[in-house]
Amino acid sequence: MLKTPVIVLNVKTYAEATGNNALEIAQIMDNISNETGVSMAISVQATDITKCAEKVSIPVWAEHIDPIKPGSHTGWTLPEAIKNAGAIGTLINHSEHRLILADVDTCITLTKELGLDHIVCSNNVSTSKAIAAFSPNFVAVEPPELIGGDISVTTADPDIISNSVKAVKIVDKNVKVLCGAGVKNGKDVAMAIELGSDGVLLASGVVKAKEKVSVIRDLASGL
Amino acid sequence: MLKTPVIVLNVKTYAEATGNNALEIAQIMDNISNETGVSMAISVQATDITKCAEKVSIPVWAEHIDPIKPGSHTGWTLPEAIKNAGAIGTLINHSEHRLILADVDTCITLTKELGLDHIVCSNNVSTSKAIAAFSPNFVAVEPPELIGGDISVTTADPDIISNSVKAVKIVDKNVKVLCGAGVKNGKDVAMAIELGSDGVLLASGVVKAKEKVSVIRDLASGL
Amino acid sequence: MLKTPVIVLNVKTYAEATGNNALEIAQIMDNISNETGVSMAISVQATDITKCAEKVSIPVWAEHIDPIKPGSHTGWTLPEAIKNAGAIGTLINHSEHRLILADVDTCITLTKELGLDHIVCSNNVSTSKAIAAFSPNFVAVEPPELIGGDISVTTADPDIISNSVKAVKIVDKNVKVLCGAGVKNGKDVAMAIELGSDGVLLASGVVKAKEKVSVIRDLASGL
Amino acid sequence: MLKTPVIVLNVKTYAEATGNNALEIAQIMDNISNETGVSMAISVQATDITKCAEKVSIPVWAEHIDPIKPGSHTGWTLPEAIKNAGAIGTLINHSEHRLILADVDTCITLTKELGLDHIVCSNNVSTSKAIAAFSPNFVAVEPPELIGGDISVTTADPDIISNSVKAVKIVDKNVKVLCGAGVKNGKDVAMAIELGSDGVLLASGVVKAKEKVSVIRDLASGL
User: Fold this and answer.
1) For residue C208, which of A72, D70, A175 has the smallest C-alpha distance?
2) Global pTM?
3) Which ipTM did the prediction report?
4) Please, what's the b/e burial string for B121-137 (b: 16 or more CB within 10 A of its CB; e: otherwise)?
5) Residue of D20, D43, D47, D60 best to disrupt the C interface, most CBs of C under 10 A
């Protein structure tokens, strides 16, 4: 499982993070993680997993898996395939790629069977609590209206983080909680930890930044 | 565009065609294609595109794209990403991964903009005709009830092929038609061509076969 | 089939058109249709079909059907059920309720088998043409970006209407075409007819209007 | 809220339970409920809610709602509309109509705001527990593989019921649990209660039965 506290970057399908661009970001994170000792991971498009996993030592993750076993499922994302490609974990139920309740359960079960680490995304306190019932490794709370925005959830709605942490721990105290949406700098990261989370999940704050090195360094300084 | 007549293999998410297994099949096809001069292509999981595209000279395809442009679409399959990974074409609307009508249109438009070859799958004569209205490179007719089965569509329902060819050509005579579902051997391939199609799209007939070399050689003998 | 030219009102799930509010609008249309001789129809929520069909003589339609036959499909909209409730037709593939391509085909086939009239919605010229391949009774062209807006498609993008009419008639000259999105008044209706369509499909222009009687009278004046 | 123990019949979209057929079944249940004092409810297709609610005194429910508020949502099932039509409750997330996790949350919240009773369906112990985190009125556990079958869940997999009851009560002791799938007779009902549930949710056992009166009487005898 990811060493916590942790900074997880989800590069989505941004042009700035497709192909060699994904690798470049992974290498910057790898360098800064090595240098600072801060735990980091990067989730990339399925097409870019091998390319990144071969070149960096930080954990490379998938952005999504489908609730399927090997078989005739043309074009869906097979958990075995992302593991085989070099991913050691995967996001599940990201707010841009939501799953049916029973499929969240199936995906968590499949990752456990395959020894894949996993972060299950929630949109509020009650879904965080519901997800905790499946005892995943991580829940990441991300209010959809703040994703990709300029204001960090730690400023806009700190209660959603602290209340999610409380709700999750009541159901299963071993489940770790990440804080997402609008995270941009070291101050946001520090605040996320203060609110009881085990780290952050972020995307545009790094991917769309011109000075990626300094942004990642700044994020790391928050831990 | 694919040279026709053509044999297109869709490896789906079979364990027998994940990771190095996909590469192995691609290499067998590559050898037999070189040797016989028969046009072949292979569509593989997104995770395996680069691995295959780097090692074989036959066209490597994706199994699916989503109707998206670069941006915040966590875990969906970006057309630019599969191109960047080395794919030169993609299946669209496979019967195991159907799209809403407007998204079929969008996916075809996106592949044309990116210069990606594409095969759009249909399930009967009327959807073949509807798809032809979008002027794609290829329509592949596959009655869902015959997919993965033991009887080739060319035997079970030859009219669906010949009538699809007619219906498609009425709408746009430049659209080529492939024949899918249950195709297993050279006789099926020969029959598909006789029925007016430009080749075959198949999956389990090769992927689940023990003797892949002889099966592919036999398929090639049908052309 | 609907007598053309026709004004079809889709009341959606607006509060102003739920329950007795739907009936009230249906009755206004019924009166004005009787009075003016203008052909009109109203599509209402499944819950309100019987209530309206029992009280008005204009055709009452459903807003949607699912591609199912009687059986175990909890909560989906059965074509037989809307017919049984009193609907004589249904919208299919509305831009707010899109269907996968094969299901558009199935829904059209089911309505034909049951003798239900039907309007299949498209979002642009190429999907209009594709839908025509299924030989439905009506195609309604509605650019999604104009739906619910203040500018009629007849002003904002008249070519999409005239080109859809042309594209549809090339594939099947018996398919009629309706014009949707932003239609608000008699001038828009007149323009829609001038562009070659057989009538209009509208929603908010009537449902959200304070003076529904005068708005509907004005729409009718365009024919 | 439904008086417990309760027998809830979901008529799905069976031909035997569409239109007047639904009303007939509702009336049989109404009579037997009056006669025996056993609490019963029936969930019917949206088109049939008013017809049934006007004629029977047992609670009439909807089979499904969509996670929407009044507005432009053509053809989706508005919670306000089913209430307006006479429903006093609704199934949510039936195994034949599953919802994404965040939408389960939204639907439960909407029913609470509107004062609608609700039963949220789960497929196993862990999803039962997850649903309990939303504090719904009822969870109904139904292993999908047993739905519509000949063997009652109380015989085939009694542990799934007793373990769901335990898991649900740990998260929220006020949530009641129903037992579904394969329930056919009074013995199954009695067993369901013995396993700790507050009643049963069933469908084909009644709807497909020739002798509906005797089947419902037998079910009632189990309480």
Assistant:
1) D70
2) 0.96
3) 0.96
4) bbbbbbbbbbbbbbebb
5) D47
